[in-house]
Amino acid sequence: MPDFFSHESKPNPRSSALRGVVLAGAAALLLAAAPAAAAPARGAQVDTRPNIVFIMTDDQTADSMKVMRNLNLAVRQQGTTFSQAISTYPLCCPSRATYLTGQYSHNHGVIHNAGAFGGYVRLDNTNTLPVWLQQAGYRTIHLGRYLNGYGTQNPDVTEIPPGWSDWHSTVDPFTFNYAKWRMNDNGIIHDEPGFLNPGEHQTDYFGRRAAELIDRAAPKPQPFFLSLTFPAPHSGSPRDNDDPIGFLTPSPAPRHRNFFSRTPLPRPPNFDESNVYDKPQIVADRGRIRGAIFSAVQENYQQELESLLSVDEAVGNVIAALTRSGELQNTLIIYTSDNGFFHGEHRVRSSKILPYEPGLRVPLAMRGPGVPVNKRLTQMVGNIDYAPTILDAARAQPGRLLDGRSLLELTRDPSLETGRELVIENGHGVNQVPRFRALRNNRFLYVEHATTGETELYDMRKDPYQLGNLEDSDLYAPVRRLLARRLRSLKRCRGTRCNAGRPSVRLALSELQPPRKKGKRRARRNQSCVSRGVRLRLSGRERRRVERVQYSLGRRRLGSSRRPPFNTDVKRSRLPSGRELRVRARVTTLDGRVVTVDRPVKTC
Ligand SMILES: [Ca+2]
Ligand SMILES: [Ca+2]
Ligand SMILES: [Ca+2]
Fold it and tell me: Which of 274-278, 335-339, 512-516 has the lowest mean pLDDT?
């Protein structure tokens, strides 16, 4: 593995100029007042916006990040990991179109990898993230795979989608061949590996070229956006000696082969699920994971981990290049995958699509300016959030209504909860999984299968492995009705309406009154600030759906309540004097939503 920490950090003109430069007054004011406004005028001052490196793997599980040393040291320990990151459509092309638009599949319209409703040509490539970033003054670089069908659906293989300053893409149908693939390099088609690097593994090629592209872009005054999208660890050619018969696996770099051949396949409680009577037909019809099938699933698992070692070395190359150019501290790095993957959970041998956790969960780690170091955030976030995050960091404007929200909201305010619910979709049905729609929140997964009318409900607080479908439970009937109603409204949501599930509650605050003296009623005076203790209480339309409220002031806990009206009295001595304070209530509803509501309070 490259020792990227040994590279000396040279000061970069753009980063070091940050400290010295004084923005022209008007421009500085404009920037401060409207951070989301268009790009600052260039020329007059140095552009201090961060570079952005977005790294996306293919079919990688969140858990597999554990084998990636560089990623763990240089991104996760130096940044924030989102432990509940969800792919809202767990399939390559729809998920990647979501990354490029900040929209659900039902809004960007790419609902399959191929066919009339899927693939490269289905996306309106004139209105995507790189177009918006380029308009905002970023140099935009693509390296890796693009949308499925790029190279086969477009009659002109030299075609380059709009928005990219620098284009280096694999060309289908050669993308998933780790030993021999075709590239479109700014319109020039050629086969790799070339004669200068005979036998180079595809992932190594991307790692090498990523560093070259950063070396070239970093010295320029213009900030850059690098979208680095690995086909690994997706299955692909060539076949290896240890490949199981009739089973697709990736092809790790020769030096990493069998590195994990003694690593056993994890067998969580839902592995080879024994009782599937509660499950829909699409799961109940599946055979057990035994004998040769078990060995094949395990071999695939091991080869995926092995192929991630090359990805991790490529991450090391990226960090090293950013370090040598002095740009590391002013670069936002985001690492994720397009979807998760099954390895025998719920009897699914080797696939994605289904709305259970192994398919939905993706790795998500981020480092960069303002991102907390060595932090883990548990809020549920989704692939619809990547574009809003990147635009937020770049202070650029989208050309579409965004369904997601910026992850920087959470890195700026790590205890914020937005009452989030995500829709999980699979278009008209894909890969033998008929059409379903699901709603997932912090606690529940609710699924409706359109063709069979089957439904599923899991309480992940009690059943994290989704073993017991609660669709017939009387106890959960009210929750099921609420989730079904919100799924109906959210499954076609657009823009901010996608946040409509936010619980309608408010935080009320009143000053505690002293004991009344005989014959004399004491009036409240000086109502602009509180001079006594306060009573915190919840109000709002959905108060009756609340399960628990925890009150806090900054990091200090002020109390909690599980009984309506969720009162908590706070003594005056616990509130600092003469300050504008912000009291926060963390509200958990019975149907699994979590939201924080704030209330300013001024102490006298
Ligand atoms: Ca994928
Ligand atoms: Ca293989
Ligand atoms: Ca092996």
Answer: 512-516
Residue 342, domain CATH: 3.40.720.10
- CA dihedral angle for residue 95, residue 101, residue 102, residue 107, rounded to 10 degrees: -80
Identify the nearest ligand to the CA of 262 by its number: 3
DSSP state of 37: S
pTM of the model: 0.91
Identify which ligand lies nearest to the alpha carbon of 340.
1
Same domain, 374 and 436: no
Kindly give the distance from the C-alpha atom of residue 191 to the centroid of ligand 1, in angstroms, as a whole number.
23
Single-letter residue type at 456:
E
Contact call for residues 338 and 58 (beta carbons, < 8 A): yes
In this model, does residue 9 exceed pLDDT 80?
no
Q: Which residues are catalytic?
A: 92
**Ligand 1 centroid to residue 545 C-alpha, Å:** 38
Mean pLDDT along residues 337-343: 98
The alpha carbon of 599 is separated from its chain's Cα centroid by a whole number of angstroms, namely: 29
- CA 309 to centroid of ligand 3, rounded, Å: 14
Question: What is the mean predicted confidence (pLDDT) over 121-136?
Answer: 98
- 3-state SS assignment for residue 456: strand
pLDDT digits (tens, 9 = 90+) for 370-418: 999 999 999 999 999 999 999 999 999 999 999 999 999 999 999 999 9
Quote the ligand 3 centre to 248 CA distance (angstroms): 13
| pLDDT at 508 (0 to 100) | 93
Contact 551, 583 (CB under 8 A): yes
- Residues 85 and 193 grouped into a single domain: yes
Residue 202, SS3 per DSSP: helix
Residue 419 has pLDDT above 50, yes or no: yes
Tell me whether residue 13 is in a domain: no
pLDDT at 444 over 90: yes
Ligand nearest to the CA of 230: 1
Confidence tier at 528 by pLDDT (50, 70, 90): confident
Whether residues 277 and 198 fall in one domain: yes
Give a yes or no: residue 133 inside a domain. yes
CA 203 to ligand 3 centroid distance, Å = 18
263 and 289 fall within a common domain: yes
Of 412, 434, 459, which residue constitutes the final position of a domain?
412
**Residue 91 C-alpha to ligand 1 middle, in angstroms?**
5
Q: Are residues 474 and 564 in the same domain?
A: no
How far is the CA of 181 from the CAs of 184, 186, 203, 300, in angstroms? 10, 16, 11, 22
For residue 34, being part of any structural domain is answered with no
Any idea which ligand is nearest the CA of 243? 2
By the 8 A CB rule, do 98 and 89 touch? yes
Domain limits for position 535: 506-602
Residues with CB under 5 A from ligand 2 (ion): 240, 243, 249, 251, 303
In this structure, which residues have their CB less than 5 angstroms from ion ligand 1?
A: 58-59, 92, 338-339
Examine the domain organization and report whether 434 and 403 are in the same domain: no
- What is the total count of domains within the chain? 3
Sorting pLDDT into bands at 50, 70 and 90, what band is 514?
Answer: confident
Indicate the pairing of strand 139-144 with strand 85-86.
unpaired
